[in-house]
Each structure stands twice: as C-alpha cells, then as structure tokens.
Design brief:
Length: about 180
Amino acid sequence: MKLKKIHYEMPIRVTREVLWKVLLQYGDVSAFHAGVARSFHVEGSRNEASIGCERVCQIVDLGLHITLKERIVELVEGSSYKYEVYEWKNFPLREMYFEFRISGSTATHTILEINIDYQAKPAFLTPLMAGKMKRLARDVLLGYKHYAETGETRVPIGKLKAMYGSHPSAEVQVV
C-alpha cells in the first residue's frame, strides 16, 4: 500500500524570514505549540533544525500518551525541511513523514505548507485516519500561524479555532 498524502497550506502574516526562524525551532516546539505536551532534542542534536537533527515529541490525544521520535532527513535552507517519524509508542504507524515548506510570499503574508505522508499499521487503518490527519495538519499550522504572528505561546487549539474560525483561508488535499 502506498503512503497516504495530506497537504494543507495557510497564509501567515509575517515575512518569509520570520516564518523560517519559527520553523527552525525544531527541538523545543512544545515551548510555543500547545499541541505538543513536551518536546526535546535528542542528545547530540541541536535544538535548531538541521539535517540529522532528532527530537522526541510527547502528545496526549484522546487520553493516549503518544511518543514520537523524529529526525530531519531533508532541508533546504530558508525554505523547507522534511522529517521522518522513526520510532513511536501508542500510535498505529508503519511509516510517517512531515514536510514544512514556505511556498510563497507577498507584501502581506507568507504561505506555509504542511505535507504529511503516512501509512498506518495495520494498513486498513490508513484511509480511516485521513480525517484525523487533516485535522492534525490544520491544527499544527494554526499553532505556527498564531505564534509567528503574535509571539504568544502554548495557546490551546480550541482557542485558536475560535479565534481564526473553522476554515481560515486554507487549502487541504488528500491523495
């Protein structure tokens, strides 16, 4: 079975340079993003995004305590990076990748894209998880949007959804 692909993009009212500085905060994403209960860089890795940089993210979702170990596998300075989830606990995965990409900018905003490629284990769960993965993509981008635009940290996702509405100028695709 092929990996399921989720694509979501959202305009963020900051310059490309400011958005890249936010994305570079790889190891300590939980310091500003409320969707991650705790995160830290793996010993030997830097806190800043770079090829091979590793982190651990602990997430609580529907009462499950999920642990993900992640490693950056591709990076284009000032533009994008992709990381693999190489180890997990309490999450039905076979394979998963996240990519963040700054795709364009105007005088008033910059577009941030997220691409999630995944396959569940067992495989029949893969299409069943599409709705959850779409919501995850949107929630992740809302967290980055709010932090980049305001500097406010750890705002709960429910509050962000109330502030920005259910569909802030965004596009989602499932392949």
